[in-house]
Write a structure and sequence with these properties.
This protein is of the alpha/beta class and 373 residues long. The protein folds into 3 domains: 14-133 and 147-182 and 232-251 and 294-367, Rossmann fold; 190-230, no CATH class; 255-285, no CATH class. The chain has 10 helices and 13 strands. The chain has helices at residues 25-31, 81-90, 106-115, 164-171, 243-247, 258-261, 269-272, 295-305, 322-329, 341-355, and strands spanning 2-6, 11-15, 18-22, 37-42, 91-100, 119-127, 150-157, 214-215, 222-223, 235-237, 312-315, 333-338, 363-367. The protein has a 9-stranded mixed β-sheet, sandwiched between helices. Strands 1-2 form a two-stranded antiparallel sheet. Helix 2 packs across helix 3 and helix 8 crosses helix 9 (322-329).
């Protein structure tokens, strides 16, 4: 990370950089220096294959070319051990990996990550409440599926180089940013039981909350609130991204109709179904990636595992660039890899938008020739 003195505002101005690789993630990972990345935050393919079987790239030769979610070729299987080992190699000792997975395929992803040598530390749930049930309705109130309301992510860590304290001092990795990721009291990101907060709670670290205890509803336990908020849990609740959030920065890009964006035929019943995906009713869709995560949850995750501001966060499955935008908004440098050329332009536009015009020159796109058709 580079620092520049801004005389006009008399403060340190922190400028992050983003390097976006257009190519195959395995090839790009193999070209990177070992132990050069502080954290990996990513949203890999969920492997939602048409036959309902969970596979990894290692299981079948065509694992990266089978149709998956919305018929996308890149979503036929989840990444396997080969990919996880490549991630392990580029991470610093103690570096964390956060990888999302589908509720019925995440077990394959978790096993691949563990078999590669990572320590599985926890799983994190993004709770969003908005999923549409994909259920075959039968007489008598019967069906075949539940309403999807959360998506799981694996939280793993590369083995430490000594104790946690030693690792943090030497590499800046190995620990989670607890205070930086606390939920402010009343923050909807924490959907659980809430407590009455003392009137003198400021929520900014400068208040006097803690002089009085608060009673956790239904528990009978009295505790003192922390000035920065509630201890972070292994879940984060926020809605799916709005169309405005998905497309911020993409105004000058060519658009697609709702039917084109969701691979449906104009005027058909399939396009009218909520199962068709986001954007189906839009006149023109600029960010047509089908699985965009919200900035809120990705900023929280980057902040949780990224380490010090200026550390490097890697996303081997950049998609439309949400992790990159989130990382840079939190003051981290970013490396993104994306094989599908249709998404590189979207990711670059979104990241430049959130970085701001003043620092947009800090974003560069590199064509690797691997998978960049």
């Amino acid at each position: 990370m580079r620092q520049r003195w801004n005389c006009r505002c008399s403060m340190w101005c922190l400028m992050s950089s983003a390097t976006l690789y257009r190519g195959d993630c395995l090839a790009v990972l193999a070209s990177m220096e070992p132990e050069s990345v502080d954290a990996i935050v990513c949203d890999p393919p969920y492997g939602l294959s048409p036959d309902g079987k969970a596979r990894t790239w290692d299981d079948i030769e065509e694992g990266r070319a089978r149709g998956g979610f919305m018929g996308k070729a890149w979503d036929g299987a989840v990444p396997g051990v080969e990919w996880a080992r490549a991630c392990l190699r580029v991470l610093k000792p103690g570096g964390h990996l956060v990888a999302f997975g589908g509720t019925r395929t995440v077990h394959r992803l978790a096993c691949a990550i563990e078999d590669a040598g990572f320590e599985i530390r926890d799983s994190i749930a993004w709770v969003q409440w908005q999923g549409f049930p994909k259920s075959l309705n039968l007489p008598g109130g019967l069906g075949t599926g539940l309403k999807p309301a959360h998506e799981p992510a694996i939280l793993a860590r590369k083995p430490l180089g000594g104790t946690v304290a030693t690792n943090v001092l030497e590499h800046g990795t190995g620990a989670l940013n607890i205070d930086g990721c606390r939920y402010a009291y009343g923050d909807p990101a924490w959907p659980g039981p809430s407590e009455p907060v003392p009137a003198d709670y400021s929520g900014n670290g400068a208040g006097t909350a803690g002089r009085e205890g608060i009673n956790a509803i239904g528990t009978g336990i009295v505790s003192s609130p922390h000035d920065l908020g509630r201890w972070p849990a292994n879940l984060y609740a926020c809605p799916k991204p709005s169309r405005a959030e998905r497309e911020a920065g993409c105004e000058r890009l060519p658009g697609r109709t709702g039917a084109e964006a969701t691979d449906r035929t104009e005027g058909t019943a399939g396009l009218d179904s909520p199962r068709a995906g986001a954007g189906r009713t839009a006149d023109r869709v600029k960010n047509h990636h089908p699985t965009v995560k919200p900035l809120g949850v990705m900023r929280w995750l980057c902040k949780l595992v990224g380490g010090q501001r200026g550390s490097v966060i890697l996303d081997p499955f950049m998609g439309s660039g949400t992790t990159g935008a989130a990382a840079m908004l939190e003051g981290f440098d970013f490396i993104g890899i994306e094989r599908e050329p249709e998404y590189i332009q979207i990711a670059e536009a979104r990241i430049r938008h959130h970085l701001g015009a003043l620092f947009a020159h800090g974003v560069q796109v590199i064509e690797t020739g691997e998978g960049a058709a």
